[in-house]
Amino acid sequence: MKTLKGKNIFLRALEPEDLDYLYEVENDESLWEVGNSLTPYSRYILEQYIANGYRDIFEVKQLRLVICENKTGRTVGFVDLYDFDPEHRRTGIGIVIYPEQEHRRGFAFESLQLICNYAFNRLDCHQVYAGITADNEGSIALFEKAGFVKNGVKKQWTRADGIFKDELFYQLMRE
Which residue of 14, 111, 170, 174 could cross-link 53, Cys pair, CB 3.0 to 4.6 Å? Predict the structure, then answer.
């Protein structure tokens, strides 16, 4: 896969030049809740992660792509497929647009469209799903706009800042 190109953004594989951006995103504590992180990542570990980026999604069960703006080529986020299950033809999806001033520019919506199309048409998935904390109104609106349907609630599933939060389970089925 070279790139997945949309109207305003394209998705591409991680490159060694992404190390500083990846380091900043992965070590921003405000994002740890959505990424299920508890500790910072070293540059060394992230270099190894990038170096292993060539490994196939069928082998490692995940894929991270960089979201870049078409006009400038500037990096604005990541979109991940995780827990890829080819037997049951499903995968989880996660997205981060960073920094926050890049929000509400349509990058996340277009990225979801591109990655869902990839999951359905290239990976032959039957469904993609996402877990979103009940207080994350922006992500809920984004996924619902993209056609995802809320199909469940995991009560007090995620603990953040000493508080247990419900996690909503969203799915998009292949038509």
Answer: 14
